[in-house]
Amino acid sequence: MIGLLGGSFDPAHEGHVHITKAALKRFGLDRVWWLVSPGNPLKHNGPAPMEQRLGHARKLMQHPKVDVTDIELRLGTRYTAQTIAALQHEYPDARFVWLMGADNLTQFHRWKDWQWIMETVPVGVLARPDDRISARLSKAANVYRRHMLRGNASQELGQAEAPAWCFVNLPMSAQSSSAIRDAGDWAATQKTEVPK
To answer: Nearest CA to 76 among 38, 114, 117?
Structure first.
């Protein structure tokens, strides 16, 4: 079972590492692939250059069961549903679980083909500070309420047939990529690491 954690990772931070390790354990996954996306269709501003984000993520995420990839760039996919379909085609024997923070569940209904995603792969949702209540009351949570596994059954998620999803509460870091960018820490890194 392979967990897929997509995002711009602009920049990757300890919160990503924490939820990845928790997902491996809580959902009984064999591996997690970080899908460093070329861009986020829901964001107006583009992310830092791909090579910079990949390099930083690979330095930060040092775990034998985690692969940091640019597979969406190589596949030429833009949306999560396209990526999942392409991965299922490329790896027909693999079982995938889509992973997301609770903040993404809150706005999941805005994603292209979000219901297809829920109907196609199990979804593991990891709680983040300030997003627990809004995520549980989200449109996606309400539409798929009867397909939710209890947190104490989270190990069964990878074997469940979609639609199936599980919401787990974790002690979480409030660190976010947006806060890092807003503080100017990532911009300073960009200026020194991007080749001219």
So the answer is: 38
Strand order in the sheet with 165-168: 66-69, 31-36, 2-7, 96-101, 123-126, 165-168, 148-149
| pLDDT tens, position by position, 20-66 | 999 999 999 999 999 999 876 555 566 889 999 999 999 999 999 99
Place of tokens 């300073």: 188
CA distance 129 to 101: 10
Q: Which domains, from first to last, does the chain contain?
A: 2-193 (3.40.50.620)
CA separation for the pair 78, 90 (Å, rounded): 16
HSE of 121, CA atoms in CB hemisphere, 13 A: 26
Omega of the bond leading into 41 within 30 degrees of 0 (cis): no
Contact between residue 125 and residue 57 where contact means Cβ atoms under 8 Å apart: no
Neighbours of 64 (CB within 10 A): 6
Tokens 């996919």: give the residue.
77
Distance of alpha carbon 21 from alpha carbon 55, whole angstroms: 19
Q: What is the CA radius of gyration of the chain?
A: 16
Residues 152-187 pLDDT 10s:
899 999 999 999 999 998 875 555 555 555 556 655
Q: CA quadruple 104, 139, 32, 46: dihedral positive or negative?
A: negative
